[in-house]
Specification:
The two termini are about 15 Å apart. This protein has about 210 residues and is an alpha/beta fold. Helices cover about 30% and strands about 25% of the residues. The model has no long low-confidence stretch (mean pLDDT about 90). Helix 4 links the parallel strand 6 and strand 7. The protein has one domain: P-loop containing nucleotide triphosphate hydrolases (Rossmann fold, 3-Layer(aba) Sandwich).
């Protein structure tokens, strides 16, 4: 596993249409998940910047595509690698009006289907619960449209290590892919951080 150090992390812009995407073309690592799955906490943990992504107690708060620029120093590589981390609005939150949901899914789909820079989509699923219909639907949509997906099981510190395998097996079963690798992650303990950075480093160096 490579040693990866995040050297800088900053917010760039928020977008709801193509015209608002950042002008600089950089490789993009995308994060998507249900509202309240711990996406902002994971982004802050990964970047090691407190409040880079706003953690909200109110689900469905992120309503735009948020772009962050991160710099990474990878052991054995002379040049620092700069990439975009892209935070997509949470899906599956019931209180969001139908009209809003339609608008959101339209600009999210436009981004996912047209961006040339996406390296992979990190789909976050809460390790404590079986994936919900919206998780499975989102996963299948990504796979059907040829987007590489890395499933990350968040809140790994909330369950005992002995029951972890059982919970991961339940996620695999629900997604219908028994052999899929799932990365357990705890934003509280930064567990899974090195492994996720290693995956990112590999695509940055391709």
């Amino acid at each position: 596993m490579r040693n990866v150090t995040i050297t800088q992390a900053k917010y760039i812009t928020s977008a709801v249409s193509k015209e608002q995407y950042p002008e600089s073309c950089r490789k993009e690592i995308v994060f998507i998940g249900r509202s309240n799955v711990g996406k902002s906490s994971l982004i802050n943990s990964l970047a090691r910047v407190h409040n880079l992504a706003r953690v909200s107690g109110q689900p469905g708060k992120t309503q735009t595509i948020n772009f962050y620029e991160l710099g990474a120093k990878i052991d054995g590589v002379e040049d620092r690698q700069t990439f975009h981390l892209v935070d997509l609005p949470g899906y599956g939150y019931a209180k969001t009006g139908k009209e809003n949901r339609r608008t959101w899914s339209k600009f999210i789909e436009e981004y996912l289907l047209t961006s040339q820079e996406i390296q992979f989509v990190t789909q976050l699923i809460d390790i404590r619960h079986e994936p919900m219909a919206s998780d499975v639907e989102q996963f299948r949509w990504l796979v059907d449209h040829g987007l590489p997906v890395l499933v990350v099981a968040t809140k790994a510190d909330k369950i005992g290590k002995t029951t972890r395998d059982k919970h991961l097996a339940a996620i695999r079963r629900a997604l219908g892919v028994p052999e899929i690798d799932i990365l357990p992650y705890s934003s509280v303990k930064n567990e899974g951080r090195s492994e996720l950075l290693d995956v990112i480093a590999n695509v940055l160096l391709e």
